[in-house]
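User: Reviewer 2 asked us to show a designed sequence for the structure in our supplementary figure. I'm pasting the C-alpha cells here. Could you produce the per-position amino acids so we can include them in the response letter?
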C-alpha cells in the first residue's frame, strides 16, 4: 500500500450514510466504499438504494441497505443495533437526510416550519446522540453532518431550510468541542450548488443565472466532487486533527462578493 493509499484508506471501517439513497450522499457512500469501508446505506426506499448498491458491488466494495425513519428516535436506535449486529461497530457516520421548501416567508406555516426543523436539525441531533454515544464507548469515530451554503449566509426562497442548516453548522461545532479529547471528530461538509432532488424545484432559469454569476467556477458541482472532502473528513489518518470545521465545496461561491 502506498503512502497516499494508507493516508486515506478506510479498509476495515464501518460507515453509516443516512440519506445514502439520495444523489449527493449516494455518491459519498460510493466513495467511502471504494476507499475500503463497508457502508450501510440508510433511507426509506430500498428500490432507490438498489442502483447505488449495484455500483458499489461493481467497484468491488461492500454495502447493504437498512430502512430507517430519521424523525423517530426508536428507529435510529434500531438502525444502530442492526449495523452493530451485522458489522460489529460504527466508525463513520454521514448525516445527510434533509427536506426543503420554497415557501414565501409570510406563508410558512407552523406545521411546515416544524417539519423541516425536525428533519434537518432534530434528526441530526438524535443521530449524533445515538451514534456519538456508541463512538465514545468504542474509542472514537468521525461524524460528517451535511450542511449547506445557505447555512453560511441567507439565500432567498429557502428560509426555513437556511435556518435549519445554520443550526446544523452550530450544532456540529458544539459537538466537536465537546468530544474532541475522546477522539470523536465532528465536521460539517458544506456543498455549494449541486443539482439534486432537494433543490431542483427552485432552480429556474433566473436563479441559475444568479448562481452562475456568483460562482467563480461558473458551473454547478458534480456529485463525485464531494468524495475527496468526504474521505479527508472520514479518515482517522488524513483527518486526525480536523474537527469542528465547515468544509466548503462550492466552486468559490462563498468567496465571492462583488
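Assistant: Here is a per-position design you can include in the supplement:
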Amino acid at each position: 500500500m502506498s503512502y497516499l493509499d494508507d493516508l486515506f484508506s478506510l479498509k476495515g471501517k464501518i460507515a453509516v450514510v443516512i440519506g445514502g439513497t439520495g444523489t449527493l450522499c449516494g455518491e459519498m457512500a460510493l466513495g467511502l466504499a471504494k476507499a475500503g469501508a463497508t457502508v450501510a446505506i440508510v433511507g426509506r426506499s430500498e428500490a432507490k438504494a438498489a442502483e447505488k448498491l449495484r455500483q458499489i458491488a461493481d467497484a468491488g466494495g461492500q454495502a447493504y441497505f437498512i430502512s430507517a425513519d430519521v424523525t423517530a428516535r426508536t428507529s435510529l436506535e434500531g438502525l444502530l443495533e442492526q449495523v452493530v449486529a451485522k458489522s460489529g461497530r460504527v466508525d463513520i457516520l454521514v448525516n445527510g437526510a434533509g427536506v426543503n421548501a420554497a415557501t414565501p416567508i409570510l406563508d410558512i406555516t407552523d406545521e411546515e416550519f416544524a417539519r423541516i426543523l425536525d428533519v434537518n436539525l432534530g434528526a441530526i441531533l438524535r443521530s449524533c446522540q445515538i451514534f456519538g454515544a456508541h463512538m465514545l464507548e468504542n474509542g472514537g469515530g468521525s461524524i460528517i453532518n451535511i450542511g449547506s451554503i445557505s447555512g453560511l449566509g441567507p439565500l432567498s426562497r429557502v428560509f426555513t431550510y437556511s435556518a435549519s442548516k445554520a443550526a446544523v453548522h452550530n450544532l456540529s461545532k458544539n459537538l466537536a468541542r465537546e468530544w474532541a479529547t475522546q477522539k470523536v471528530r465532528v465536521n460539517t461538509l458544506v456543498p455549494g450548488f449541486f443539482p439534486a432532488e432537494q433543490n431542483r424545484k427552485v432552480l429556474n432559469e433566473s436563479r441559475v443565472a444568479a448562481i452562475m454569476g456568483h460562482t467563480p467556477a461558473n458551473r454547478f458541482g458534480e456529485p463525485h466532487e464531494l468524495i475527496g472532502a468526504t474521505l479527508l473528513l472520514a479518515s482517522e489518518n488524513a483527518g486526525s486533527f480536523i474537527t469542528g470545521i465547515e468544509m466548503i465545496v462550492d466552486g468559490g461561491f462563498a468567496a465571492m462578493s462583488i
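For the response letter, you might also mention the following. The domain at 3-250 is CATH 3.40.50.720 (Rossmann fold). The chain has a mean pLDDT of 94.
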